[in-house]
Every structure is written in C-alpha cells, then in structure tokens.
## 1
Amino acid sequence: MKEIRLSKSCLTNKEKEAVASVLNKEFLGMGKEVEVFENLLENFFNRPVVCVANGTAALHLAIQCSGIGSNDEVLVQSITYLASAQAITASGAKPIFCEVDQKTLTIDIDDAEKRINKNTKAIMPVHYGGGVGELNSIYEFAKKHNLVVIEDAAHAFGTNYEDNKVGSFGDVACFSFDGIKNITSGEGGCIVTDNEEMINNLKDARLLGVHGDTKKRYSNQRSWNIKVTSQGWRYHMSNIMAAIGIEQLKRFEELSSKRKNLAKTYDQKFLNVESLNRIGSDFKNIVPHIYPIMINKEIDRDKLRANLAEKNIQTGIHYFPNHLLEFFNTSESESLQLSEEIYTRLISLPLHPDLSSSEVEYVAENLLEHLN
Ligand SMILES: Cc1ncc(COP(=O)(O)O)c(C=O)c1O
C-alpha cells in the first residue's frame, strides 16, 4: 500500500503548463502574471490585495504597515505555526502568548484580556485549521481596547464566516499559498484590506520600500531613479508563483469541496467516539487546511503515531506551543497550562484533495482500531 501523506501539493498539467509558459517568456520576476493573480484575488475577496513571497512576509508587512514596532505588544495564541510569532518579532514587537478555546483552538479572548496593558497594539487571531472561532467577538474586543486585528488566515483561504469570505471584511487578513495550503502558488501569500493607505505602503514595502515600483514592474519596467522613505523588504511574488496561483484559483471550487468532503468523512467516522474530540467541524463554511483531533489524555500519542506509520499513514502535530520555545521564553513568560495539555493530545490526520474517501476511511478505521 502506498504511503498516505499528511499533506501534499495537488497539481494538474494546467499548473505545469502555466509555469512552462513563464519559463519560456524568460521573465521570471514580478510582472504581468503577478498583476493578473492579484486582480483575480481582488475579485475573489472584493477587496484590494497585495501578493507577497509567503504568508510569513504577509504577516510581517501587515504588522509593520499597521504602524506596530518596538515596544509594542501583539496578542497571539501560543498554539500556532511558528511563523505567526516570528512575524511579530521580525517587526520589533513582542508576541504575548494566549490560551486557546478548546473547541476551535482559536484564541481565548478572556485569557487575552488578562494580558492587555498600555503597550498592547494588536491582536492576531489565527484561523486554526481554517475555522475562525468567534470572530465577531474578537472584533468587538479589539474595538473596546483600541487594537488592530491582523488575521492570520494562512489556513483559511475560502472559509466563510456569517456568509462572508474571510478576508472580505475586517481590518487586515494574511493568507499563505505555500505548497500544501487550500490553494498554492508554490510558495507565496497575500494581504487583504480595504485600507487604501495601507495597500500603497504594502506595495512599496514588498519591493524594498521603492515608491511606485509595483506599477513599473507590472509594465515590465524597473525603477532606476528611486525614492525610498521607509524600511522595505524583498518580499514580492514572482511570475512563476503567480502562474501556479492563477491555475489553482480556477480550481478553488474543486479543491475546497474535496477538502470539505474528506473532513466530513472523518467527522462521520468519529461521531460518537468518546476517546477523541473533533475540532471545528462546521465544514459547510470552513475549508479545512488540516484535520486535527484531540485524543484523550490516557492514550499514548507516540505509540498511536508509530502504529499508524506502520500502516503507511503519516500524521502530524499542529503545533508545538510557541511560549515554550527558547527564543520567546523570556523570564517573565509564564506557563499556559491548557495549551501545554492540549499540545500533548493533538494529532493531525492526512488531509489533501488527492486523497480518496476510501483512503480517509482506512485512516479513520486504523485510528479507531488502535483507540479500541
Ligand atoms: C498559521 C500559519 N501562519 C502563517 C504561516 C506562514 O505562511 P508561509 O509558510 O507561507 O510563510 C503558516 C504556514 O504554514 C501558518 O500555518
């Protein structure tokens, strides 16, 4: 039996032909394809979009262009991909790690509220697995405390919240298009906001701060006589990446409905199983990027993972709590008991659009067999 991968890039000849076409033009940097991809994404979100090199860069630039920097604090859940926290420190600000809600593994607002002080400038809700939790409450909370909301929507491309696409409302949302995300551009990411001033700053900041360079590049030109007034980075997207992204966006319906259906298949199998907890589960609205579950404390996770590995089933753990990492673990940081406990119980099962429902059933049955 072939190995059932935890996640993978799911590509057709369309993406391969699109890349070949860019290679044949011998214009690989940022140009026409990036402009086209950005325009398609603007139609998708019905809002301005800036494409960048990856989701981490999207977060970093969104923080910087929200005017957040040294001495500022950003509230973020501890259980998230390292990128959320590193993007905060990259901008000079400090991540303040918070607990998560046990049902959705999104940020626990009550816990976050305890950690607010005069330096708190922003909250970064992470849309764990593609679900957004109580996003309205987060916006109310942010309004009450005068905080910017920088949504880490890396997992949530295509997810709906109260009939609106994530990214189509709110302050600013950052997406990732890395190889295994809901849609991919190889690597890549984007920032979505309706703040025009921020959009202009983001466009310059992704090109080393060179004023107006985006327009030049879209017409295959470069800026020689430059004006620079702020810190920028080389964070732009390339034509090769955009070419893949354009084809993946055309496949969004197909890719997202496959993910949803597979997650529903797992859910069905785990419906009344007492030794595990499902997370999220609103797969009418959520486009799931991963399928994590929480197993009961008594179950030895390493043994379970080893057993599944023997059956050719890859698993993962999303994620190691960031507050325990040496880099962030300053003397003042305290333990986050709930996050630490949840971490020991998390296991992610294979989920990607190239899986068949019988493969998902095979994974679920082997897991259940072990639990029983
Ligand atoms: C929650 C979260 N935030 C941010 C990122 C960063 O995205 P990228 O890998 O494109 O830099 C990821 C990517 O995996 C992620 O899972």
## 2
Amino acid sequence: MAVSLFSAAQSLFRARRVCSLGLSIIASGCIVPFVSVAWAASAGDSRATIDRGAYIARAADCVACHTKPGGVAFAGGYGIQSPMGVIYSNNITPSMTHGIGGWSEAAFARAVREGVSPNGTRLYPAMPYDSYAGMTDEDIHALYVYLQGAIAPVDTPVGPVTRLRFPYNMRNLMRVWNWLYLDRTRFAPRPGETVAQARGRYLVESVAHCGTCHTPRNFMMAAKAGHKLEGAQVGGWYAPDIAAGTHGPLGSWRDDEIEAYLRDGHARDRGVAAGPMGEAVEHSLRYLTESDLQAITAYLRQQNRSDSSGRPVRPTTDPARAYQLDSPDDRLIRHAARAERNATPGLYADRRNYRDIDGGAALYMAACASCHQIDGRGTRDDFYPSLRQSSAVQASRPNNLIMTILAGVHRDGADGAARMPAFRHDLTDQQIAVLVHFVTDRFGSTPLTPSATDVATLRRFDTADLPAEARP
Ligand code: HEC
Ligand code: HEC
Ligand code: HEC
C-alpha cells in the first residue's frame, strides 16, 4: 500500500472538520441518531458495545483506508496501490443506497472476514480480510453496531471505480485465492500462552493486521508461509523485520521502547515512524490502551525462531558517545562543506536554494544539519532525532531514508506532532542519492550507494497518491 503522508494528513484534517472520525464522534457529541432498518433488530445494544466497536475500528484502522483524501470518514474512495493496479475502497457508512445500511450482521461479517459482499462480489485482499478472518464474533458485532449506529450515512457515490487489467479484473479468481490462502480459524487462546501473549497475537495477527505490511507477500499478494512479520516492501517504503524474539532486529529494543514507538511514533535512538507506519500510529495505534500495547510487545517477543541467527542484528551505539561537541566527524563535515562552498561561491546565499549543491557534506549542511545537527546526533531533547541510531539510516536498504527525505515526516503520535519538511520539490534524484550515501557513510553502519534512477523509482511511489495539483 503506497500511502502518502500528504494525502493522509489532509484527509485527517478535513475529516476532523466534518466531525466524523471514529472516537471523536463520540467524544464531541456528534453522534448521529441514525438507525438503519437492518440494525433496528439489535436495538438492545448498549453504549458499551458502541464504544467497543469504536475501539476495534481504531485498532483495525478501518477509517484510514475507507476515507479518501479530503473525503468524509468511512465514505470510501481511497486508492490503494497494488502491483495489479489501484484498488479503491468502498463506502461503509450506513447508507441504504451506497453503503452497508441494508446489510445484515451476517452479511457484514462475511464481507469483513471472508471478502464476499452480499451481492456475491469477491473483494480483493487489499481489504485485509485475510487478517480480519480471525476476529471474534463479539468484536464483529461491536463493529457492526458502531458503524450502523454511530456513523452518519453518506448517500452519494464516492470516487473512482476499481478497474484492474485482465486477468485481475476477474473477481471470481478470488474464490481460488480464498481456497488457497484464507485461514478461517477464529482467534482462540492457545495452551501455554499468557493472557497478554494471546491478546497480543489477536491484535497483531487479526485486528491490527501488522502482517499486511510487515509480512512478505507472494506474487498472488498472499502472505508468504513461514515468514511471518519478517519484513516486506510497502510501496516505496520497507516495513522491517519485527519478528523480534531475542535475536531479531528488535531484539536490542527494550519493551518500553517498542511500546513508545507504537504509541508516540518514535523511540529515542531507535527510530521514527514515518510513511505508512506513521499513518498506522496516527490513525490507530496511538489510541490503544497501555495494556494492549504491552500485549503486542509480549507477542512480538514470543516470535523467537531458530533461524534467527542469520538475520541482521542492528548495531547499538554506545549512548555515552552521543553529544560530544566538536567531534572528529563534526570537524570533517564542516571542513568538507567549506571546501565545497569555496569551490562554488555564493552557495549559501539562500539556504533553501539547494539547486547548485552537489557535494554530500554541503547538501547535508544546507538541508539537514539545522535540525539533526552537524554531527547527526540530533538535539538533546530528541525533538530532532539522532540519525546515528535511527533504523532508517542503519538499515541495509536505502528505501526508508530516501522516502523520508522525499516525503518528510508528518505524524501525530500520542505525545504530540512530528514534522520534518518534505524535500520532494527541493532536491533532485541525484542530490538525494549523494545525500543518502553521505548520511549512511557518516552516520550509519553500512554505506549505501543508491543511484539517481533508484531514487526516481521511489519518487514515483511518493507522488502516486498526491493530488494532481501537488505533483512535481
Ligand atoms: C488496508 C486498507 C483497508 C482496511 C484497513 C480496511 N479496509 Fe475495508 N476495504 C478496503 C478496500 C480496498 C475495499 C474494496 C476491495 C475491492 O474492491 O475488492 C474494502 C471493502 C470493504 C467492504 C466491502 C464493501 C462493499 O460494498 O462491498 C467492507 C464491508 C469493508 N471493507 C469493511 C471494513 C472494515 C469494517 C474495516 C475495519 C475492520 C476495514 N474495511 C478495513 C480496504 C481496507
Ligand atoms: C500500513 C503498513 C504498516 C502497518 C499496518 C504496520 N506497520 Fe510497522 N512499519 C511499517 C513501515 C513502512 C515501517 C518503517 C517506518 C520508518 O522507518 O519510518 C514500520 C516500522 C515498524 C517498527 C520499527 C522497526 C524498526 O526496526 O525500525 C515497528 C516496531 C513496527 N513497525 C511495528 C508494527 C506493529 C506491531 C504493527 C501492528 C500493530 C505494525 N507495525 C503495523 C509499516 C506498517
Ligand atoms: C526542520 C527540521 C528538520 C530538517 C531540516 C530535517 N529533518 Fe529529518 N527529522 C525531523 C523530525 C522532526 C523528525 C521526526 C522526529 C520524530 O518522529 O519524533 C525527523 C526524522 C528523520 C529521520 C527518521 C529517522 C528514523 O529513525 O526513521 C531521518 C532518516 C531524517 N529525519 C533524515 C533527514 C535528512 C537526511 C535531512 C536532510 C535532507 C533531514 N532529515 C532534514 C526534522 C528535520
């Protein structure tokens, strides 16, 4: 799913204004007293059920995919990039004409857990029904009550219709897909599992569908068996291996760091949630209770596999080394930037004018050092994070670093907002390639040398979701 920060931020902003975003509906008293025909049968449902449904809708992130940029929450029309083409989400407001207003609870459950609409239409797994298949009857009921009873119906058609090319336009092929790949097992605690691990497994595998992004897919878009949560490409981004165990890349993170990352979108000297992960934090994970975050972490820890020895362990930097001023690196970068500037007089006349800069150090000085500091260690309060321990810089693939430079960071976490400017209009592909080499060489553990063409490829993912007027 190539999701754009820009469009998601926009949709969130506008959706807030119309007062129809998940919990905020309840919090701000904007509940619409709408009861559909189908829902009237279950009128005995209490406020507690609606609240539970709202929580599950958050945890399952229904709103993010079912709201188009600038559109009304749950009214659909959001385009999801897939290797087969763009798949648009549907209107799931209780509209009798365009939404799920006339649907029975059983029909709703079948769509969400098996990917089959009441008229028999087969859904593509861009709707993560293969994850939701494990959802319990209680949670499906609560979701149904919430969507039917607390969301305003939107009676107009939304956005574009999905048109995939042959043979993907044959939705009946999804019958075969379901037969091959759909695991219909409902969640149930397993013997030997703690309560927290079981809850975490339910959240990770079914509700919060972490595997939609973190589990590699085969050519049919189905999760690769035996590689659960081991890392996968999502649009231009790379969702890292999070099958933590004690040896995996997350093995060196403390539990409270994983929880902070999920809740706030950043964990000091570990990493920052940008791109699709930033959206997952902003729309969904920051609303989870502490005990649910602990449960997710407990479950990730449990993924201790015997084959973990060959997987890369991210180096940890000695914290005592951080924040030495005037370090040798400092002096080198200053020196290199000065040499580049002397060779190109007038370089810094306008700091925002990067056009003529082509050396890595000078580019870093001009575009990045004001926040991440000359030595890449960020500010002491971590408001501008250190690049030295950052997972995007330490990674063996340049994807997340390139995407972060192109798209910036635009995320609201539980502890506030994080904003890094997007450089998509300011830096060329060649400049970004040079900068990535400089940053990974100086601050990372493996110097990376992407080409300008590599950057151009990722740039297409970055802009695919932007409104036409905002494209470069
Ligand atoms: C990752 C994105 C994504 C998430 C998250 C998501 N959906 Fe969907 N959903 C889609 C897409 C895309 C479609 C359309 C699929 C197609 O056309 O085959 C869809 C279709 C549906 C449909 C079928 C509607 C119809 O008219 O046939 C229902 C119902 C639905 N989603 C409910 C939900 C609920 C409830 C949640 C949260 C529990 C949810 N979705 C979360 C992407 C998503
Ligand atoms: C929409 C796709 C998506 C979903 C859903 C998603 N992630 Fe992520 N995740 C990513 C991407 C992309 C990154 C890399 C972000 C970056 O570096 O800025 C990431 C990064 C992470 C990291 C940091 C790993 C590291 O080594 O830096 C953790 C931990 C994580 N995700 C956990 C989860 C958990 C747990 C869930 C489910 C509750 C989840 N993610 C759901 C896409 C996703
Ligand atoms: C105006 C200040 C500012 C500038 C300029 C800036 N950044 Fe950032 N950067 C931030 C903020 C804020 C964050 C996110 C902090 C958070 O999420 O808590 C961030 C995050 C990052 C991350 C994510 C780290 C991770 O662990 O995933 C990387 C990488 C990064 N910046 C690289 C750069 C590079 C390279 C440049 C120069 C092209 C740059 N930044 C310019 C403020 C800035």
## 3
Amino acid sequence: MSKKEGVTRFSVSAEKSLMRQFDQLRKTQGYKNRSLAVADMMRDRLVEHRQSGGDYDAAGTVTLVYDHHSSHIQQTLTELQHDFTGMIVSTLHVHLDHHNCLEVIVLKSQASAIKKLADRLIGTKGVKHGKLSLTSTGKDLPT
Ligand code: NI
C-alpha cells in the first residue's frame, strides 16, 4: 500500500474470469479504469449499508404511478404532501396519458422519516407502482 495526496493504492486479487466480466461491465458502464469503477462500488455499498440504519441525514425520491381517476387518490396524495412540507423539497407531476400520472417527490430529512412517509405515499390506495430511492445528502460521503 502506498499513499499519495490522500489517495490510497491497494492491490486486489481476483479470479481471471471474474476480472474479465468486471472489465466488460465497467467498460459498458463507461468507466475509464478499474479504480473509478471500484471506488463507485465502494460508495454504493456505503450508501446501501447506511440505508439499513435510521437516524442520519438523507435525501430520497419517491416515484409514484397512479390513475388520477381512482377515487380520492389525488386528494389523499396532496393532503399527505401538505402535512409534510418540512421534508418535501419538490414534486414533479407528469400526465402520462389520459388516465395515468407519474409523480416524483424529492425528500430531505432523517432516513427513517423519509422511509415512513414513502411507505404512506406508496401504500396509498390506487397507487399502481411506487418506489423509494434513498440516497446520501453527499456531505458525509468521500469522493
Ligand atoms: Ni396527471
């Protein structure tokens, strides 16, 4: 291991077939070298691990797809969002077709609070598909 201006170098041993597949994947994903690809994987694992925790500052997006003709859904979703203006940063609404709407709600709060609100939004009767993408605020994540 050698250190140079805050960067740590280390060597990794892996099966040739694993390395070959990894190199193919990182090229497909546009990584110019293994270091960049591995560093992104490390950050991804850190974020993933923290998502299983609870009381830390986080950001997230909730994506909802629903039929706005479904009874009371629009009203329920709007009322829910008005109750949590402190953590909702922005909402994007797209009218997909005559029936279907796509809503993306951007949240910033404690991870546990984001999860709780996301569950309520996704669990609202009439939501066809809902997904929470929880991520870091970026502050505590090394580059
Ligand atoms: Ni709409």
